Amino acid sequence: AGVRHAPDGLARAAFDRIGGYAGRRHGGPEQLRRNLARVVGTTREQVPDDLVADAMRSYARYWYEAFRLPAQDLAETAATVDVPAPDRARLDAALSRGKGVILSLPHTGNWDMAGVWLVQNRASFATVAERLRPESLFNRFVEYRESLGFEIFPLSGGEQPPFGQLAARLREGKIVCLLGERDLARHGVPVTFFGEKTRMPAGSARLAIETGAALLPVHHWFTDAPGSMIGCGEEIDVSVGVEAATQALADAFAANIAAHPADWHMLQPLWESDWTDRQRARIVGDA
């Protein structure tokens, strides 16, 4: 509550300092450095310290803005987000077909802020939320995102599996938004990402194939505070099948992340070569 109502300049500066400190202390988070090494095409030792610090400042900004969103005027907040005219046109063209639109994006910038722009300027949308423990934490998380205008389906433990519920929304001509660059489980599709093997969720491509909805890669990144931007890429061709469409989505993510590496908030192991023994055993066992 304190962050929500503190003076913006002071609170934002405090989070920026905390992020910068975390990014420089002992070279910053090790896994973040390893992940950024793939993005900039170097070794972990050669990743610029400034990039790691900027990435942690960006991550701190995400949390700062997430804490404050529920207390903000959402229309005014959405006005700080810029979407170039060609990107708006791609989104509107897809919506005009009436078959639904799937917006798939990586963990970049502030995906909640991107969602607020969408609700305020186009329409509400459906998405999924990973079930958290304890249940009270999950419920607060769902209430928070519903307060922003999002429709939330639990990824597990709900009355129905989310795939069917999302497909129903798409058949109504509505929008579904899904985070799409990390799925280290049996349903993940093997892809090459920045030249190395990993897995990404199949859900976006599967939904598009089953419902006829358009699948568009989306990217959100920060500009000078409090500004930010959303890019909406060309529609992914899903006629090639789930695997090839997911690889095309991975390629779109990679191009956008490479353009804005500091705003990619991936602090966990992503690539196969970084998997823990436990992750590898689970994935191989599931396969």
Automatic annotation (TrEMBL):
**Is-annotated flag, keyword Ribosomal protein?**
no
* Presence of keyword Transferase: yes
> A single GO CC term, please?
plasma membrane
Q: Which organism is it from?
A: Gordonia desulfuricans
Q: Which InterPro entries match?
A: LipA_acyltrans
- What is this protein's name? Phosphatidylinositol mannoside acyltransferase
One GO BP: glycolipid biosynthetic process
GO terms (molecular function) for this protein are: acyltransferase activity
Q: Which UniProt keywords apply?
A: Acyltransferase, Cell inner membrane, Cell membrane, Membrane, Transferase
**Residues in coiled coil:** none
Q: Name its cellular compartments.
A: Cell inner membrane
